Amino acid sequence: MNSSDLAFLVPDPNDLLARPVEERAKLILELLAREHTSRENPVSHSNFFNRAGDPQFPPKYGGRQREVDDALMEAWGLLENRGLIVKSPSSGGSWFFVGSAGKEALEKDALFERLERFGLDRVKADLTNNEGRRTAHRGKELDAAWEWVRMKEGHAMLPAGKRAGANSGSSFIAESRIDELRKLASPDFDFQKLIRLCEELNSSYDSGNYYATAMLTRGLLDHVPPLFGQTTFAQVANNYSGGGRSFKETMQHLEGAARKIGDGHLHMHIRKNETLPTPQQVYCGPQLDLLLAEIVRIMK
């Protein structure tokens, strides 16, 4: 597979380049999910993109191919940073497949598209009166449907100008996960600060306060190591084995990427030129959800 496959979906390079990085990432994820959803059938990063000068891979976007590849590499990095695509453990780091978080993201996108066709009023009435039997299934899908309703209601309540600038995606941390944290009780740990950090992360991200989001993420990672019998999050990422290999690799990614982004924004001195953080830069919802899910599991 290479980037020219996208030409079947988006034949106009101007159209592809004009799309936000989130949409480009979704296109890549949808393509990968057709064939590469397990470690037994990964895709090579280098083979996904056109190889310059290779006659076997003629550029489908002509003179714009290099720009397209640069834009797709940015989107690929976003998928990798969020843990939606996973490195195959036996590949030496250059082969990837769509992980469980990626599959869940695609399922949620498909559900949200279906709910959009029903409309907010019908979906909310069905969830309230029929437990989602007409518009959503039970379990995670039902939780996601309620998340969609909250998102739509909150978006509709914002002034028009604010609506355009606010983040309109899913919550940074699922409300159902925060509810699970609220139900925890321990003689050794008080979860109030952890819950508050999660709530403020959602509020900051939804309001477009991305410096605050990055710093709060760093604060949350610094807060939780004692729950795993460790003193630093680096020790959690490297030493905690209770969550399995996938959990360990995801936590190492959190330590190596999300935490360092927060550190950079927190400690960087004023400079002559600055670029502001984007929602894509600070978003690590799937990785944090995995961390919080493990906390819920071991603290029950």
- Secondary-structure element order, N to C: HHHEHHEEHHHHHHHHHHH
Low-confidence stretches: 156-169
- For the CA atoms, what is the radius of gyration? 20 Å
Q: SS-based structural class?
A: mainly alpha
Q: Approximately how much helix is present in the residues?
A: 55-70%
| Number of E-state strands | 3
Largest sheet, strands/sense/barrel: 3 strands, antiparallel
Number of domains: 3
User: How large is the count of helical segments?
Assistant: 16
Mean pLDDT: 81
Strand order of the largest sheet: 1-3-2
Strand fraction: under 5%
Compute the separation of the termini in Å: 44 Å
Outline: globular
List keywords for this structure.
3 domains, 3-stranded antiparallel β-sheet, 16 helices, 3 strands
SSE blueprint:
Blueprint: H1 6-9, H2 13-18, H3 21-33, E1 43-44, H4 45-48, H5 65-81, E2 85-87, E3 95-98, H6 100-118, H7 120-130, H8 140-157, H9 160-165, H10 175-182, H11 192-206, H12 210-223, H13 233-239, H14 244-267, H15 279-282, H16 285-299
Antiparallel strand pairs: 1-3, 2-3
Helix pairs in contact: 3-5, 6-8, 7-8, 11-12, 12-14, 13-14, 14-16
Write a structural description.
With 300 residues, the protein is mainly α. It folds into 3 domains: 3-97, no CATH class; 99-157; 172-299. Helix content is 62%, strand content 3%. The protein contains 16 helices and 3 strands. The protein has helices at 6-9, 13-18, 21-33, 45-48, 65-81, 100-118, 120-130, 140-157, 160-165, 175-182, 192-206, 210-223, 233-239, 244-267, 279-282, 285-299; strands at 43-44, 85-87, 95-98. Strands 1-3-2 form a 3-stranded antiparallel beta sheet. The longest helix is centred in the last third of the chain and has 24 residues, at 244-267. The radius of gyration is 20 Å and the shape is globular. The N and C termini lie far apart (44 Å). Residues 156-169 have low confidence and may be disordered.
